[in-house]
Amino acid sequence: MKKLFTFIISIICAVMCVISYATETNARLSRDIVRLHIIANSDSDEDQALKLRIRDRLLEATSAAATKADAAALVEEYEAIARDEIAASGFDYPVKAEYGRFHFPTKDYGGLTYPAGDYDAVRVVIGKGEGQNWWCVLFPPLCYVKGSVDSSAAGEALKDMLSPEDYELITSGGSDRLPVKIKFKIVEFINSLR
Known about the structure:
Elements: H1 2-31, E1 34-39, H2 45-61, H3 68-71, H4 74-88, E2 95-104, E3 107-109, E4 112-114, E5 117-126, E6 133-139, H5 151-161, H6 164-171, H7 178-193
Parallel strand pairs: 1-5
Antiparallel strand pairs: 1-6, 2-5, 3-4
């Protein structure tokens, strides 16, 4: 009976350590990162095409030199751009842009892997916001439309921002190294429990 009790206490301690690690890792990584999140009105072809046109216009209006401090100021500009594109496309959907903290799944950007978790983001919701969404890392700038991500340049920018441990975690996510995959699955699991 004493062995069973010791085993259960050990498991509980291990789970608490994993939860603590996952929470701390997410907090460190999300502190300096801002994402852009665009949600379409619906999954219809027209609404998805509208979402992508709005995305293109927002990215054209975003300076590559933008910083996290600039993100909150982009809300009004993004909302006006989205409203303009919606009208130009012949729709009358409302649009709402906001800056806040939102949950995102694990995402790979050309060799840079960001774990699931809560991140600051500029969110643009088109109409009912019931369609598929699109997201990227707005700061540091990793938003690319054509899929050609210069992960080496982005990696260098991250190297100055993040701790060596966090930098290794993000830049080695595309490799076959087991510890990185375990850490990300743990973060996803813990965040899904919330």
